[in-house]
């Protein structure tokens, strides 16, 4: 058979082999090709190798005679001095240089190696075992090389096209799935399961910059941020938003770090661990880049969706809270309202509402609604620390790992939120938790907004109560005013069962003023007021009746108890005032069973005081409603 005929048959073999190519594999193609060439050329053996770029080795993909396995292993040994020459399409035996075909340098050798360099896909080598007497013409070797390079190119394009189609179909399916998911947990789960389907032999981690639920059981870790961590490939991938590849020699694996990049930022890194040191093909890198970008956009979309839901919810919460704060609530109700919202949002261990006392520019104290911790010495120290910091900075404080000089301080998470009105810090809300990093940044921002919206209500209500207190308080004695006392008595006579009123008058008070001066006279009144306040309960109302006259109203107290209290106060005043003074006292009472009025009640008490003065002063006189009615009958 002449060379021309053989060349045509080789082309036909090549064509027929191509018809057996399956999009799912090359095995039949290589085997059919090797068998056909073996039979046509009457070879002793034929071996076909392809170069695996990832593992940097030659792979035997077809052979016709197992007895030449030792030779095959020798060719594929990376320590063989000819191995790189074959891979780089360079001569290692005798070569017809102009055609780049390898042939034996020794006429007794029976092997010829033909390097195959297709324009698409991995290189290959055809090793032919030939009877040395028969040999092969260089034209045939050239034909084998050209035709096989052409067919290898076609096969690789078909297989690569199919693989790309499958991968990008997977990517399309993943994208479609992502579009219907709006929960971060579902997104993370889909990312991991999808990449596992594509690369089942690899290990994966999501290195996230966002908060995540550690109870999900997913391979999720927080990405490291520190001075040293910036040198890590994972941190570089995140910071530069570019894929990083790391060959870890000691662990004998290769890591790919692909940034999860959206339109607005990078949300983490997909870590792919290949259990060997390999050179990852560029087309695979490109696919992983697209996959990671798709995943990043899905995470971003979910975050934006959840943030928008949170924002709507937060705005609704703030709107509802603002409406309630504007409904003329007192300070206790406002504090309870804000406290309940804080507890609902972040479940703190302690809450302190710290407010500035208007009469003292730099003195802050815990008001009602604060937890008991802020009444302790330790709580007051914490309060002073954070109030001082906020007064200097006029900014909120957000700490996830607070360390105190006090080794026993049990709280690590801190939010201190200033109440700023007209550029001035009027108060501070301090929120504590025993766990580290117990509060999220979103919770911190929401509480900032709540405190900003509630500050004006706090300021106005406290100012209103202070004005009311000023209006109902006697400036000199800090006792209640006459008007306040009258209102309380009238209110109680409508709802209570009984009550007793004591009127005191400082005996010979004009003489005190004339002898010692009005300043000392004022001091005497304040001394009497102090003694009165020290002898009454919180429900009782002490007031300055007018001038040197003082009063105490005792709700739900009968007249004789009032007389005893009046005598006790008289005794203490006589013993402890300086200069020494005495009191005259009149006592009267009312009961629900009697037909009485506030006016009559005041008149009776005033008459009792008048009688005490007439009886010689420094005494207590009572005058009951029964006595008043009897006097009216005899009048």
TrEMBL record:
PANTHER family, per this entry? DIGUANYLATE CYCLASE DGCM-RELATED (PTHR45138:SF9), REGULATORY COMPONENTS OF SENSORY TRANSDUCTION SYSTEM (PTHR45138)
Q: Specify the species.
A: Ornithinibacillus massiliensis
Give start and end of each GGDEF domain.
Answer: 497-625
The source's superkingdom equals Bacteria
Supply the name of the protein: GGDEF domain-containing protein
